[in-house]
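User: Design a sequence. Structure:
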């Protein structure tokens, strides 16, 4: 299922620098197929959009985990 943030997401709208072939692959794999694996989506849905770093790419799952752990309420 495609991501509901497609229209506003900086990554999907080519506002984040990335090799174009890799960008297309990520868009296909994450944005258009499985948003639940996207690092940006996970942080946004778990903590809120304000926690999504400008340089957080969809494939950065480990970074997403550490952001979530660091900011989750105990
Ligand atoms: S899947 Fe991730 S990168 Fe793609 S549009 Fe949604 S939040 Fe943005």
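Assistant: Done.
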């Amino acid at each position: 299922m495609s991501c509901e943030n497609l229209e506003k997401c900086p990554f999907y709208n080519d506002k984040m620098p990335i090799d174009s072939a890799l960008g297309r692959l990520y868009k296909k794999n994450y944005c258009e197929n499985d948003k639940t694996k996207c690092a940006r989506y996970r942080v946004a849905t778990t903590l809120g959009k304000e926690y999504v770093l400008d340089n957080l790419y969809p494939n950065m799952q480990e970074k997403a985990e550490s952001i979530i752990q660091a900011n989750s309420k105990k």
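The helical segments are 20-31, 39-46, 61-71. DSSP finds three helices and no strands in the chain.
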